[in-house]
Design brief:
By secondary structure, the protein is mainly α. The protein is 74% helix and 0% strand. Helix 1 runs antiparallel to helix 2 and helix 5 runs antiparallel to helix 6. The N and C termini lie far apart (37 Å).
């Protein structure tokens, strides 16, 4: 994959992310804040963007979304290959940890 292809894919991801974010915010704001891991202010800005502004933002060469999983515990909880009944408990634990981090950031 060459540099032009990488930039094109970043722009596609940015556009998809912005469109999804706006849709989530408009349909269920509280869920959007949690699922996107963004603040109230960021949600306000995203929701108010015009289509032209969305396209302009998406056309940059920097990825706009970020990885929310930033510690080993959450990574291991989400990537465990356990098929036991504890799998749902493990995922719930990871979601609780990420939700707590969302509240800390807000």
């Amino acid at each position: 994959m060459n540099a032009d292809q990488v930039l094109m894919e970043i722009r596609e991801v940015n556009l998809s992310y912005l469109m999804l974010a706006q849709s989530l915010i408009r349909s269920d704001r509280e869920q959007a804040l949690y699922r996107l891991g963004i603040s109230e202010q960021a949600a306000d800005r995203l929701a108010s963007l015009s289509p032209a502004q969305v396209l302009k933002l998406a056309s940059g060469n920097t990825l706009l979304c970020r990885m929310r999983i930033d510690d080993d515990l959450v990574w291991s909880l989400l990537t465990s290959h356990s098929k036991s009944a504890n799998d749902s408990v493990t995922r719930l634990h990871a979601n609780i940890l990420m939700a707590g981090r969302h509240q800390e950031a807000a």
